[in-house]
UniProtKB/TrEMBL annotation:
One Pfam entry name: Rrf2
One GO location term (cellular component): cytosol
The protein's name: Rrf2 family protein
GO molecular function, one term: DNA-binding transcription factor activity
Taxonomy, superkingdom: Bacteria
PROSITE patterns: HTH_RRF2_2
Taxonomic source organism: Kaistia hirudinis
InterPro entries linked to this entry: Tscrpt_reg_Rrf2, WH-like_DNA-bd_sf, WH_DNA-bd_sf
């Protein structure tokens, strides 16, 4: 099963937007993410509708932040990108009349719901500014010569 990277990708984009002078075009974001500008516009549209980014058309237009990163949480972005599935596992529906299947599904549903609630609460406690600060600390260590070399992009 292929993982859904919309949340990760949009967090990445928002952090770059905070450090970028002026608007970022869909084409530029698509190039950075290795995807199509149409996919970028569709995904960024959810962020715009939620009030986290703005878009301007025409020459010199593009995407800009509508709020500072410390006012946007991982939960906000998760919701804005359509609340993708958090878990690849789930209940079976091979034989809904089977009492074993019912018991297994009840146990899984309860555990997954508890895990989902905990994860979403954690997402709500982390601002994108927190993630950007972690990035900046990692970049400073790399530039300062501490730690393994890697890309910052």
């Amino acid at each position: 099963m292929r993982s859904d990277s919309r949340l990760s990708r949009m967090l990445h984009v928002l952090i770059h937007m905070a450090d970028h002078e002026g608007p970022m075009t869909s084409e530029g974001i698509a190039l950075m993410l290795g995807t199509n500008p149409v996919v970028v516009r569709r995904t960024m549209g959810g962020l715009r509708e939620s009030g986290y980014v703005r878009s301007e058309k025409g020459h010199g237009g593009g995407w800009t932040l509508a709020r500072p990163l410390d006012q946007i949480t991982l939960l906000d972005v998760y919701r804005a990108v359509g609340e993708p599935s958090l878990f690849a596992i789930g209940p079976s529906d091979d034989d809904p009349r089977c009492l074993v299947e019912q018991a297994v599904n009840a146990a899984l549903d309860e555990a997954l719901q508890a895990a989902r609630s905990l994860l979403l609460a954690r997402f709500g406690a982390i601002s994108i500014a927190d993630v950007a600060d972690d990035f900046r600390e990692r970049a400073a260590r790399l530039i300062g010569g501490v730690g393994p070399a890697s890309q910052t992009g």
